[in-house]
């Protein structure tokens, strides 16, 4: 956990440098995570054991219950995002955010599930699960770019508020 925090902090500072400024922080973390997982999985069993505490730590994170991860991490992430919203603007765009995050995510998830069901022939519940995951967008990079470019606070808060609410809709779906 400490190593993950150190790596995350280092990447956050690296992405603020002019050379790496165009790389979104979340994309870099995703690529680094996928790469490290592929490298670890491609290693032989003996090489994995030779990693010692890092290998055991990786295995512990892979064996964690997904519900525990969601119920401990999601509230912290949502609270962190909610603390940065301009409440006076959020009150004005609240209904638009609710429409986008409620019926908008529901219709998008159903349309995606329908497409997967018809064209790929998957089980309908699997199609709904995939549809709800894909329907809940996470515009972290978009909100950061809007703030950096000086876009309208109404648009920024609208996208940020919808992002906060659509996670809840996707969880219910």
From TrEMBL:
Chief subcellular location: membrane
Keywords of the record: Cell membrane, Ion transport, Membrane, Sodium, Sodium transport, Transmembrane, Transmembrane helix, Transport
Where's it found, cell-wise?
Answer: Cell membrane
Tell me yes or no: is Cell membrane among this UniProt entry's keywords. yes
* Transport in keyword set: yes
**Gene Ontology CC:** plasma membrane
* Residue stretches making up the Cation/H+ exchanger transmembrane domain: 6-173
| GO function term, MF aspect, one | potassium:proton antiporter activity
Report membrane topology.
Multi-pass membrane protein
Name by which UniProt lists this protein = Cation/H+ exchanger transmembrane domain-containing protein
């Amino acid at each position: 956990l400490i190593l993950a925090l150190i790596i995350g902090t280092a990447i956050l500072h690296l992405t603020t440098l002019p050379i790496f400024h165009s790389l979104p922080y979340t994309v870099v973390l995703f690529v680094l995570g996928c790469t490290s997982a592929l490298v670890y999985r491609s290693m032989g069993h003996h090489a994995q054991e030779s990693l010692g505490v890092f290998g055991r730590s990786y295995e512990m994170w892979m064996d964690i219950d997904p519900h525990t991860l969601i119920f401990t991490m999601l509230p912290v992430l949502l609270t962190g995002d909610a603390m940065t919203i301009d409440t006076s603007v959020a009150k004005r765009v609240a209904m638009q955010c609710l429409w986008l995050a409620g019926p908008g995510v529901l219709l998008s998830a159903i349309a995606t599930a329908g497409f997967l069901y018809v064209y790929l022939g998957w089980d309908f519940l699997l199609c709904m699960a995939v549809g709800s995951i894909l329907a809940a967008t996470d515009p972290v990079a978009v909100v950061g770019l809007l703030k950096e470019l000086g876009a309208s606070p109404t648009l920024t808060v609208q996208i940020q508020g919808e992002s906060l609410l659509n996670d809840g809709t996707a969880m219910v779906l």
